[in-house]
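Incident log, support desk, overnight shift.

02:14 A customer reports that sequence design results differ from what the structure should imply. Their input is reproduced verbatim below. On-call engineer (initials T.W.) acknowledged and began investigating.
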């Protein structure tokens, strides 16, 4: 039982981390606020992003679980398609350059609550892009409610997955904010380009691994 809980939490954390380690417009704003204000502003902004992502993850997760229960026979195809989508996202992230955005943006004065709510709303505004993105990662990590058995147990699995997702997403924003704050004097915008390259490679490798592992499972022994 404990092993199952840990596995569910780790899968949820994997989705949360994988879907967060990009330096797009949202991350640029969090970085800008950390640099121009302080660590508290960056943390509040990151928490706003994590909460918005968690809300969209709940929608994506239950939608994916519903599909998974009805078309379970196509689970391998879903994993391959999800893996391909993740590879495309990884390549896009690798070639995305956040430097112009970081140099252009200027954060005004606001309190942590305003930092939180503004990033929460800004992230939710991109739900059309984020939800398919999350669906791909849920398919890649083969995460689902596995509805067979008691509905209570199934709901608990779903709750643990979302909890793990939030923990993974929050961990990323905390690490990013503290890292930027610690090295603020040495920080240069080009460093975020390096983060994008690393994140893009990691995400693409995860997608390729998912595709290859799925095909190897299909092949006869």
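02:41 Re-run completed on a clean worker. Output:
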């Amino acid at each position: 039982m404990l092993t199952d809980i840990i596995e569910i939490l780790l899968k949820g954390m994997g989705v949360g981390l994988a879907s967060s380690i990009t330096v797009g417009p949202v991350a640029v704003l969090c970085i800008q606020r950390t640099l121009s204000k302080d660590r508290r502003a960056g943390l509040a902004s990151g928490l706003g992003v994590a909460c918005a992502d968690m809300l969209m993850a709940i929608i994506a997760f239950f939608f994916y679980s519903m599909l998974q229960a009805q078309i379970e026979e196509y689970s391998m195809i879903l994993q391959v398609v999800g893996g391909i989508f993740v590879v495309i996202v990884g390549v896009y992230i690798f070639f995305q350059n956040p430097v112009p955005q970081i140099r252009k943006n200027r954060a005004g004065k606001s309190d942590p609550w305003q930092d939180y709510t503004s990033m929460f709303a800004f992230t939710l505004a991109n739900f059309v892009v984020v939800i398919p993105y999350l669906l791909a990662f849920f398919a890649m990590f083969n995460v689902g409610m596995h509805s067979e058995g008691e509905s209570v147990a199934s709901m608990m699995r779903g709750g643990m997955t979302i909890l793990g997702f939030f923990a993974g997403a929050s961990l990323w924003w905390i690490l990013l904010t503290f890292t930027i704050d610690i090295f603020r004097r040495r920080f240069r915008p080009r460093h975020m380009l390096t983060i994008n390259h690393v994140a893009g490679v990691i995400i693409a490798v995860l997608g390729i691994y998912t595709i290859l592992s799925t095909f190897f499972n299909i092949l006869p022994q």
